[in-house]
Amino acid sequence: QVAPGRYRRRLSLPDPGAYQVTVKQARAGRSNKTATIGFMVPYPAEYNLPAADSGPALLAQIAAVTGGRTFALGQPLGAGTAALDADSSLTEPVELWPWFLQIALVLWPIEIAWRRWARLRIQ
């Protein structure tokens, strides 16, 4: 109680969201009083949606800083990929799994023969 008829309680709530507090007062010889109030604990600011017009400006800024460029919706991608074709450092990826599979298929019978030969040698 912080003043006559005024009470204060500090709450630590685990999650953001909507909460409802109901307070009941029981008096001897009188009717019970009930008060209900609702309140919201907002989500952190980092979860807020950005402003509607901030996306293209931020994307243009990122493209300028990183040396890239932006594309418009409906713009063909071939319009600016000539520089990528001229760059010889970009190559197709090489799939290594067939090589590893062949090595495993060759080594597996050799390993089985090695174990059996070792067992025969012990006997």
Brief description of this entry?
It contains 3 helices and 2 strands; from the N terminus they run ββααα.
Describe this structure in words.
The N and C termini lie far apart (90 Å). 36% of the residues lie in helices and 15% in strands. Strands 1-2 form a two-stranded antiparallel ribbon. The model has no long low-confidence stretch (mean pLDDT 83). The chain is an alpha+beta fold and 123 residues long. The longest helix has 26 residues.
- First and last CA, distance: 90 Å
Instruction: Point out poorly predicted stretches.
Output: none
Strands of the widest sheet, in order across it, are 1-2
* Percent of sequence in beta strands: 5-15%
Chain-averaged pLDDT: 83
Number of strands: 2
Structural class: alpha+beta
Rg from Cα: 36 Å
Number of helices: 3
Helix content: 25-40%
Largest sheet entry: 2 strands, antiparallel
Order of helices and strands: EEHHH
Q: Shape from CA axes? A: flat
Itemize the secondary structure elements and their pairings.
Layout: E1 17-25, E2 33-41, H1 54-66, H2 82-86, H3 97-122
What key attributes describe this structure?
single chain, 123 residues, alpha+beta, two-stranded antiparallel sheet, 3 helices
